[in-house]
Amino acid sequence: MSDNDTRNAAPGQVRLAAGDTEVTVDPANGCRLASLRIGGTEVLRQGAKYGSFPMVPWCGRIKEGQFRNGGEVHQMPVNSPPHAIHGTGRDVAWKTARADATSAAFTYELLDPDAAPWPYPGRVTQLVELAEDGGSLTLTMGVEASGDSFPAQAGWHPWFLRRLGEEGERSEDVRIDFSAAWQEERGEDHLPTGRRIDPRPGPWDDCFGMPDGVDVTLTWPDRLELKVTSRAEWVVVYDEQEAAVCVEPQSGPPNGLNTMPRLVTPIDPLEISTTWIWRTLA
Predict the structure, then answer these.
(1) In angstroms, what CA-CA distances link 188 with 1, 93, 105?
(2) What is the pLDDT of residue 5?
(3) pTM for the whole thing?
């Protein structure tokens, strides 16, 4: 057995534990967080498509699956017609580079033949770090180019349960609180129109701008308060499903490979982090 405790993890999964918190990472399934249990209570929606997955090398939708790099136009698989959505990283097996009791690092190659086609070589790394007291979790992702430069984004798509606890003992619905400088106006095609508008009340499937960094608080009354922070300036909030809500810190807005490209070069990688910190309310 490796140094990390895998008693409650399926084969190939990595379990981190500290205090009363347990985090399970599934590198074979897009390196997603398969579980986050705080005080014995699951916080993330369960299922192969859920948990919390990394969005890389782009976040949200790319218009019609196409992006331009210089004079070249590249076509990504249209997996959410008529657009491509959420990158290739969630669909490929990552390698575990190292793991101990409270942290682990994972990688995948952008040209991995099992991933959806991406035209540029490079490597993605995700670091998962659970605080020694079990009171917070930090995720860090890096995108490196090993050849030509290319536009890229990175972020996370957590599915937080709308209500915590078992059937019959579930909490009230989660409350989402934040203050944004603007909201990206969403067109009928679900892409930003390019106009920044005053933030509107939910329900949301929308991108918000936070130039001082992402800061969103989820509160399950009398159960748990969890704060999602990041130095990144964009967050997508999605609360249109019954079972779960999403707070997605990311390095740029949807369709940003086209509208706000951030070039990754061999000497200038992309790096983004998010920290989730929580406290019980019971």
Answers:
(1) 52, 34, 39
(2) 40
(3) 0.94
- The C-alpha angle 118, 121, 122, rounded to 5 degrees, equals 105
Instruction: Kindly state the average pLDDT of the residues 42-53.
Output: 96
Tokens, residue 101: 């009791």
Spans of all domains in the chain? 14-280
Distance in angstroms (rounded) separating the CA atoms of residues 46 and 164? 12
CATH of 14-280, one of 3.40.140.10, 2.60.40.10, 3.40.50.970, 2.70.98.10: 2.70.98.10
CA distances from 33 to 45, 52, 88, 103, 144 (A): 10, 5, 16, 13, 22
Is the pLDDT assigned to residue 140 strictly greater than 50? Answer: yes
Percentage of residues in the chain having pLDDT higher than 70:
96
User: Mean of the pLDDT values across residues 151-165?
Assistant: 97
Do 247 and 105 touch, CB atoms closer than 8 A?
no
57: preceding bond cis by omega (within 30 degrees): yes
